[in-house]
Fold this sequence. Notes:
Blueprint: H1 4-9, E1 18-23, H2 35-48, E2 54-58, H3 67-76, E3 79-83, H4 89-101, E4 105-109, H5 117-120, E5 124-126, H6 134-150, H7 158-164, H8 175-201, H9 216-224, H10 231-256, H11 259-264, H12 266-295, H13 313-363
Parallel strand pairs: 1-2, 1-3, 3-4, 4-5
Helix pairs in contact: 2-6, 3-4, 3-13, 8-12, 10-12
Amino acid sequence: MPTKSEKRKSPSKTKAERKCFVIMPFSPTKSCKDWDNVYDNFISPAVNGARRGYKCERSKIRGGAFISDILTNLNASRVVLADLTDMNPNVLYELGVRHTLKNRTILISQSLDYLPSDLTAYGVILYEPTIDGLPDFKIAIRDRLKDINNEPERSDNPVADYIKNRSYIIYERDREAVLRRLRSLHAEIFENAGNILFNQKYYDDPAWYMTGFAAPCVRELLATQYVNVEFETYFTLRLYLLGLEDLNFLVRESQFHPTSWRQKQREYFFYRAHQVLKSADMLRKPIQQHILSLQKEDYEREPSNPVFRSISWEAFLVEKKNEEKEKAKASKKSSLKKRSAKKKNAKRRKTTKKKSAKRKAKKK
């Protein structure tokens, strides 16, 4: 039988943990000879014990070049904690990569000696790796994680501050040109949507000459990325373009084949058409938001995502899988609650029936 503490810590009864990736030295440095001890007995307990839904992780030393694993973690982790003690070059390199990719970075150090003012201006948590210094360090980490949860996109590094005041990293002289491109993109997507609807409507009419679809504006945005878009929007654009290519192939083939061939491909054509129309509907809102933001006079001073996130496909798929796992856990938890509630209600009904039967028996 599990104890009460084990029940409390069971994954089905807690929120899904988010990763806090730690970058720190591996080899002995001037101030510390055993960094494994600092991580195991100091940093990890402070993060895991903060009760903010974070799980502390650190890269492991293994044979060969493992920089790709570190870069993936720097990109995919919600929070990164960097120990700047003794200004280790590898730590500084990894911190620069993180600042380029995302916010939500916590800086700690055992001393302020030799730390550059560019970093100390953003707040460095000083700690003493002893039993006496652990309680204060835990409180500081807990408060910083709380601030991150409350304001996840607040800029906390020089790179984010540099980009923050430029809404889409566009200069004023390019503003009108970008607006024209976005309007053309918007018109192109919905002109194709209209052609798809007409082709669906008259698909069974042999006299109907099916029209093809053009996507030069979509290709230009995917190739040049003249405006920053969220990665999910970029992914949707790719799916939209692939769907149009399939539809164009079917339209071309229908011109050289008899009506019977068109009827055989009818189900697939309607399936792909539905997917393309769905992608067009998903693209409508982000494109309109970009156009409206660029039309405002103070567009450069508006807050935006501080850094253009060049997320790798692998990291994106990992994030998607984690989201699906969280949704599955939440649905399982809700179903368990419903089942328990049904059992309780059934028990109550039985007890009330028994009591009522006893009362009737006594009256008789």
